[in-house]
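In the laboratory, one determines a bound structure by crystallizing the protein with its ligand and collecting diffraction data. In a computational setting the workflow is compressed into a single prediction: the sequence and the ligand go in, and a structural description comes out. We illustrate the idea with magnesium ion.
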Amino acid sequence: MAEFALIRQVAQRVVARPDVVLGIGDDAALLHPVAGMQLAIATDTLNAGVHFPPETAPGDIGWKALAVNLSDLAAMGALPAWASVALSLPDADAAWVEAFMQGFDALAVPAQLALIGGDTTRGPLSVTVSVVGYVEPGTALRRDGAQAGDDVWVSGVPGEAAAALALWQAGKARDAALQQRLDRPVPRNALGRALRGLAHACIDVSDGLWADLQNVCTASGLGACLQLDALPVSPALRATCADDAQRLVWQCSGGDDYELCFTAAPAQRTALQALARKLEVPLTCIGYMQPGTAVEGYLGGRRWQPPRSGYQHFAG
Ligand code: ADP
Ligand code: MG
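The predicted complex, in structure-token form:
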């Protein structure tokens, strides 16, 4: 049966870990979690035509399906341990699965993440990955921990993936650096781990900086003031977009960034700047938390807000 051949192909390449008692091959995996740790669990689905163009290279789909999940663990400050993969495939294409798994492994193997199971079915192209990670009790980076007066920080340069998507949609020449940010985002797991004890609240930016910061505001019962002039801009992003207003829209509501947006007390500024140097990840303070309920932005001293705050699957 083609299904079993595909599963064997997937099972051959699995990372071994002492906390996996029984991996792929039985009706369920058996796990022996490290004593005293909490487990953080996240699931994300990527559908062809919604989350990626149907012609996307399978290696890029494998990478991204795992990256978006690892990003959720990063945002919680959790250490990745296990993953399961549910594949819905239009046909039993061994070459497609091989390339998909190569992209998946390119992230999973260095992270020592064990693939412990999944499901393989026929249907429209869709990939669902679940990941489990460890976090020390009481140290997870939650959305509801922000405090009034906290700084708001963002890692990396938000807006680059949105810029790549806009170039693709407009049929324009691709920029290799931006395209990489769209196809192979690098989840910020080392940063997320290091933010335990430093950050009060954290979220990964998947739907757009504005919308995701609004989620922190709602969960924490606060508002946020964003200084849009402080947003970091890369040469590639600037070269793609001469129009500052358009660039700001990508940066605030583009999504697919998989950067971390977090809040921390101003007393942590020096520690965070040292962390940025150590991890070689740009960290930029872009505003602060304040009493209120919503995100408000300022550009050159004037109020500014994007036409829409981020991506919503069931909008309109
Ligand atoms: P069952 O019918 O009992 O659910 P399956 O035939 O679906 O069993 O799966 C057999 C084994 O292969 C299980 O251990 C399952 O977790 C694993 N598996 C199936 N598909 C995948 C996949 N795409 N990736 C990883 N493991 C998979
Ligand atoms: Mg099954």
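The longest helix spans residues 58-76. Keep in mind that any predicted model is a hypothesis to be tested, not a measurement.
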